[in-house]
Amino acid sequence: MERPAVSAQAQTTPAVSVRDLKVGYGSRVLLEGASFDVQRGEILVILGASGCGKSSLMKNMIGLYRPMAGDVLIGGESIVRAGPTEKARLQRGLGITYQSGALFGSLTVLENIRFPLDEFTDIGLEQKNLIARMLLHQVEMVEAQSRMPAELSGGMLKRAGIARAMALGAEILMLDEPSAGLDPITAANLDRTILALRDNLGLTFVVVTHELQSILKVADRAVMLDATSRSIIAEGVPSELRDHSQDARVRQFFNRRPDAPETEVRR
Ligand SMILES: Nc1ncnc2c1ncn2[C@@H]1O[C@H](COP(=O)(O)OP(=O)(O)OP(=O)(O)O)[C@@H](O)[C@H]1O
Q1: Which amino acid residue places its CA nearest to atom 16 of ligand 1?
Q2: What region holds the ABC transporter domain (predicted)?
Q3: Ligand 1 centroid to 126 CA: how many Å?
Q4: Residues ≥6 apart with Cβ < 8 Å to 12
């Protein structure tokens, strides 16, 4: 085979590259000059105070919104400059879950997981059910396959949402506040699922969260946004940022008590 050089290059290309990105709405800028890479198989957390623009950054990264300036590369290809067909292809490689994680209430868990396969593939029903069960197995939800979403706990809904996001073979999962609204034990179980998916399947994760416990447990690296300077003020291994950052804002975030009230940005 004459292809190792190409695949070696593909392996070293970051899963996601954010290049000098400017994010905002109308004339309001939330973030400027943001640059960072997410390596394959890495769990990267985007953190910062409520309202600083974490979700907006993620929506720009997945091509849902167009950045004011800069670029986002998915596996080396620009999702910002891609035409509609290319963009759809790149987005197929991204599995996305939002805060609500909404499943279709009228479909069983299995049918929900199968839904993207029903919509976007012509795989036979038996095969699709098999894939859906395998995905449910990965998130420890097989026993709930026949249940309706209304019968699931918050943690189960989140895990089912992740399984559905993986249905089309996404290798990069983008999770927006996955542990929002979950009790600490359920949130810790979800963290365990994220780590298992990375370790077992080599998936890449970009997770928006401000849950300190979760950040310290799952993140290989963290990118911290700051609303006042509209910039990334820290990037690194969370425990190192906590213990050694020279920036008081970063130390303050990492050394707050987990049960302290949230700081909300109002402008
Ligand atoms: N579609 C939109 N149009 C205009 N403004 C928006 C839009 N989406 C979000 N915003 C505003 O941008 C700011 C940042 O919102 P965003 O949801 O990105 O922050 P966040 O850091 O994820 O917050 P949280 O942690 O509370 O979820 C907020 O003031 C929000 O009201």
Answers
A1: 53
A2: 16-254
A3: 42
A4: none
